[in-house]
Each structure stands twice: as C-alpha cells, then as structure tokens.
Amino acid sequence: MSASVPFSTLAPTTAEIREEVEAGWARVLDTGGFVGGPLVAAFEQEFAAYCGRAHAVGVANGTDALHLALRALGVGAGDEVVVPANTFIATAEAVVLAGARPRFVDVDPDDLLVTADAVAAAVTPATAAVMPVHLYGHVADLAGIGAVAQRHGLAVVEDVAQAHGATRDGKTAGSGGTAAGFSFYPGKNLGAFGDGGAVVTDDPALAERISSLANHGRAESDRYLHPHLGTNSRLDALQAVVLSAKLRRLDAWTERRRAVVAAYRERLAGSPARLVEPAPGVESAWHLLVVRVPERDRVREELAGLGVQTGIHYPVPCPSQPAFAAYADGDHPVADRAAGEILSLPLHPHLSDDEVDTACRALLKVLAAVEPR
Which of 194, 167, 197 has its CA nearest to residue 181? Predict the structure, then answer.
C-alpha cells in the first residue's frame, strides 16, 4: 500500500527554493562556469560563517570531506583513527581510504554518541586522530573529546553529516575540532540536488591542502604544477546555487523539525517507544527521530502495513560489516544492542501535525500488542 505518512519527502523544500534555484542556474548556464567559480566561492564563505569557521572547502561528497581532511592532516599508513561503532559506514570508510586503521569504540547508552572516556581508553601509540560522529543531529561531547585529544596530540575531525546547525553548550557542530566534514546528500538537513560535501576549519594551511588534494593535487599558484597526489572531488556551481538557497532557510527548517519532535515526544510519553534524546545542553538538528522499541523488525513491518514508513540507522554496526572484519578487534555491547532496537520515525520540516498524530497512533497500536523487554 502507499504510505499515508512517508518517512521523508524533498518536494516541499524543493518547491520553496525552486524559483531562486532556476534563476541561479540560468546564470550558470549563461556563463558556463559549471565547476568552481564565484558561486562556489560564495557558498563556501557563507557556509564557513554559518559554522563559525574561517574556511570552508567544497568537495564532491561527505565521504571525501572526511577522507581528504584526514589526508591533509597527514593521517595515513600505520595510523589509527578512533571512530564509533554505530556510525554510517562512510565514517570508517574514509579512514581506510586515507590508508589508516579505524579503531572502533562503543557509545553512550543514552544518546548513542562516542564519549571522551571511550576515546581515552582506545588511544594507543598508533592513534593519530579521533572522528566523533554527531549522529541523528545530536552533538557529541567535543569539549571532553577535545581535552583527551589535546593530552595525546591527536587531531579531531568531526563527522557532521547529520548535524548541520546543531549546537552543544552554544557551540555549533563543526566548530570544535581541527576540521569537520559535512555531507550535502539530498536527504540531509542541508542537501543538494545531488552529491556534495564540505570541510570547514580555522587553519588556512589545512584548507589550502584540502583544496589542492580535491583538485588533483594542483598548486594554487600554478595550475600546471601538482605537488600532491590528489583526486577529483570538486563541488560544482549548480549545487552551490542550491545549497546557498537552502542555507538561508536552514534555521527555520530546523526549528520546525524541533517542533515536530516535541509533538512526537508528547504523544509517545509513557509508551514503550523510548526516544534517543540528546545530552543536556544540546540543541539537536534532529536529522533523524530515533526511538528504541521491542521487537523492532515486527513493529516496522506492522507500521508499514498501516501506511507509516520508517527507517533504521543503522541495523549493522560497522565492526560487524564484512568489509571491516579485519578491523573488528573489540566488544561494542551498547552499539550491538541498539542496532536491534532503533527505529527512525517520519521526520522532515514539512511533516504536518496530522501526520504526526497518524504515525503515533499507529505506533502505539502496534506496541500495544508487543511484549516489552
């Protein structure tokens, strides 16, 4: 059956910016400046300012943002990077692409984010960096993790693919590490009309190295000189137009996400569905609304039958993925248990109150027939 409450939809946000994007794309078509150029530079400046950073470098996608940040920091063969076990595979993938080894750690049982204590316990003589992930839009403890990193001389590369505009203790996600990588995949809170990403940092030399690596290792001063072995990972002007238009509306869309979550929280209070809430002091971007439920797969199937679409983020922790079997060298009981319980409910800036009511009624109906754990 067709969903009465879709998990997400991009149509309303696209409609909001369509006229502005069409005008911007017309300028691109008239000038022929499809890769780089003033529109990309303008977005980079806008996004850096939004994140409270001095520099932003647009790249082709979020995976490249993390990978290139690590490479520009000199992280590579023989190095370890601490990453949470329960992230999207791209986080660990970026580490391996840089030539380093992901060292997986367990997460906090409440917000499911990596902690300073877990990072401290994982540090070895080979550790070069830590990559905290602001999962679901919640912000990890950058102050605590940063203190551990400073004691051990580690770089901190934030994975902010799901937390555009979120804050913790007043500090914007992406502003606390050595560098931070963002994804602009269409379904993100700030999404392009295709793939895209960016790295933000306050270090001008680091920003220049990332820019060079993303452009075939080319020197800024001489387009025919390539001092680095780079790759092709550039943000195009068409996507920059889209991202600039959406950035101007991002805060309003985030506030609506927060209002939708508050409505869910009220309607699900006292039920077996436990929201994965952010830590005190966090203003989440609420990229995803995740609840923990008993008999998750049964609940999801029955919700689908009632017309409510859901997601799972993520059902298989990275250390349990076949591709990362060689790096699975520890236990992650919190991440493993959560992987069987987490369920992502419909959430987007244009979700109506009626749709929230429908989703909650369906979930409560299904949970009433499920044995609690």
Answer: 197
Q: Which two tokens stand for residue 204?
A: 């001008």
Q: Residue 75: inside a domain, yes or no?
A: yes
Q: How many angstroms separate the CA atoms of 255 and 273, rounded?
A: 23
Q: Which of 71, 38, 39, 288 is nearest to 179 (CA)?
A: 71
CA dist 27 and 241 (Å) reads: 10
**Distance separating alpha carbons of residues 30 and 45, to the nearest angstrom:** 23
Identify whether residues 37 and 90 lie together within a single domain. Answer: yes
Q: How far apart are CA 273 and CA 372, in angstroms?
A: 10
Proportion of the chain in helix, strand, coil states, percent, rounded to 5 = 40, 15, 45
156 part of a folded domain = yes
Parent domain of 348: 250-367
- pTM for the structure as a whole: 0.97
Same domain, 58 and 163: yes
Residues 201 and 91 reside in one and the same domain: yes
Phi and psi (nearest 5°) for 329? -125, 25
Nearest Cα residue to 338 out of 86, 27, 53 = 86
Which pair of tokens denotes residue 183? 């994804």
pLDDT tens-digit series, residues 36-59: 999 999 999 999 999 999 999 999
